[in-house]
Amino acid sequence: MKILQIAHKPPVPGIDGGCLAMRQITNSLLKAGADVKVISLTTAKHPIVQSKEFIQYCDKTRFESVFVDTKVTLIKIVKSFKNSLQAYRFFSKEMGQKLKTLFLQEEFDIVILESIFMGNYIKIIKKYSHARIILRVHNVEYLIWERLSKQTNPIKKIMYHYLANSLKRFELSLFNHIDGYMPITEVDHIFFKTKFPNLNSKVIPFSIELSDYPYKKHKISESKVSLFHIGSMNWQPNIEGMNWFLTHIWEKITEKYPQLSLVLAGKGNKRLFEKKFSRSNVKIFDFVEDAQQFINEYDIMIVPLLSGSGMRIKIMEGLALGKPIITTTIGAEGIDISDKVNIFIADTPEIMIQTIDFCVNHIEKCEEIGKNARKLIENKYSQEVVTKDLMEFLKGIVSFIQDKN
Questions:
Q1: Which of 186, 247, 255, 346 is the most buried (most CB within 10 A)?
Q2: Architecture in CATH of 211-380
Q3: Per-residue pLDDT tens for 322-364?
């Protein structure tokens, strides 16, 4: 099977959950024996980063890229008036031309659009290719903006509401022009299935190559428990969630447990939080060279999300590494977890404080939650299991369309 994967940012390096999810699909396809080519947009925020890993990825996928300036300008606002500004930012005439040239040279069985923002190129794909078009649904994009509009000041509320509505029209319209879709979570699957009941679909969650995430038993010190969060602060839900945690939870819990430490890592953390927290029990890094090493080093992962949609890849990585995780219902959305079995769910400041209090005073139970988290990944989210479902779905799409014709 010959597959073209079109992405809105380079899958390598895996600097965020979206990149990791796209690369995971590539690796699954390659391991299943598919012929995969990847074309990606690059931006100032997500440039090409030369590395050994990147070179290897290029060799395997014949990777090509096109730069697009995603800065919001008056011209873009005007041109996107009847469309979505968020989506129009990822439109590139050069990308359209590159796809046209490619389709005149090669035939593909499947084109996978990574995220709705690649929906800008559906017309070009349909005009120059007979490939089946599959949309990879990383989340329900417009729901992120709807949730943000309910948690901000009046001016931002109006802006977010407008952006959510225009993005909603764009996002839902795409489903009338594709042959199938692959949501990452069952929650998103149910959402779209009610709107497009006859469209081919299959939940293909983020999977874990277990050998890439070796489990190391971690002993939590009763005298000095560390909380940590890893995530880029150029994503609004992360900013919102961490501000909520620091404002309503951190100060109160450290009054009771001054020995607690908090470690933040990810782009933008220093800019936002360093001046607020200069005390020795808070450490802030903008960059960590090895995310796994960072996760393994500290005790309890905190993911305080109040908005957003889709599967949180950093939570999946934390589960795979056997970390006890405290998150919200929205943070855990799409992952088949059980509160107080393989994760902790805390939706209010009071419950989150109580949960941290419980972990500090029940170290063995906290460690048990981490062990159960690893078992969950082994049983339900290993790459071997997910790859089988992925290939069955794609082969089924090709056969179904051929039978119709």
A1: 346
A2: 3-Layer(aba) Sandwich (3.40)
A3: 999 999 999 998 899 999 999 999 999 999 999 999 999 999 9
